[in-house]
Amino acid sequence: MLHFFRFLLLITSCAVVFGGKDEDQGPVIPPSKCEVCKFLATELKLRLEETGKSKEVLEIGHGLDNKKKRIKYNTAELRLIEALQDPHICEKILEYNIHKERDGSNRFAKGQSETFQTLHGLVNRGVKVVMDVPYELWNHTSAEVAQLHRECFNVVERYEEVIEDWYYEHQDQDITDYLCRKHVLKRDDQKCLDEVWVPKAKEQSAEKEEKKSQSKKSKSKDKSKLKGEVEGKDEL
User: Fold this and answer.
1) Region labeled Disordered — which residues (predicted)?
2) 98 close to 138: Cβ distance less than 8 angstroms
């Protein structure tokens, strides 16, 4: 009803007026410990994947030393340092925005939310949009993302040895499982780690495919049943 009312305002007066900040953008929900670890692990995984296929071999030792040690870049300390600090991995968190239309940890995602895509679209078409938040601040970091950013630094500092242990000894395990499930969230809620965002288009497509599959199975059963009845009549 609220969306319809706003749409009606747009048609009748070519202006959209939004109320208070809490009413339109929803309450501020601080990121959970699970969400902090989830997105830290996600960004670390992505950054390491950027250099994961490198076949570079590093030579470690002094220039006059004939016994230089050769180390694969994939397992070198330099690669881990660059992934964590160049720039700091937690700076990637600032690329996220709040998507109020999504539930759970999926509300943190890169790119504009559907709400602000719509608002920017209205402004670009010359529609006057009135909000408590000035237009200049629409794209500023939200309170939730700012806190997610701060907490990310805390997790990296506290679990640096765990990250190093994974890098040197357990890269065969998923970083999210090793860092978050086994250590950071060992005694805490881990539900957010299993939350995966499925775009509406894909979700609808999956539902259609499931319905088609169920329809085919139903037709197949009907044919088998009909065949059995016909064979039964023939025997009589």
Assistant:
1) 201-236
2) no
In the chain, DSSP finds a helix count (H) and a strand count (E) of: 9, 6
Per-residue pLDDT tens for 42-101? 999 999 998 876 666 655 655 555 666 667 777 789 899 999 998 999 999 999 998 888
d(CA 44, CA 213): 39
Retrieve residue 193's tokens. 């780690």
Per the CB < 8 A criterion, the answer to whether 61 and 69 are in contact is: yes
Cα angle 29, 33, 39; round to 5:
90
What is the residue whose two structure tokens read 């969400």? 35
Exposed e or buried b per residue across 77-114, where buried means at least 16 C-beta atoms within 10 angstroms of its C-beta? eebbebbbeeeebbebbeebbbbbeeeebebbbeeebe
| Helix H or strand E segment including 60 | strand 57-60
R_g of the chain, CA atoms, integer Å: 27
For the chain, the structural domain boundaries read: 15-195
| N residues, the chain | 236
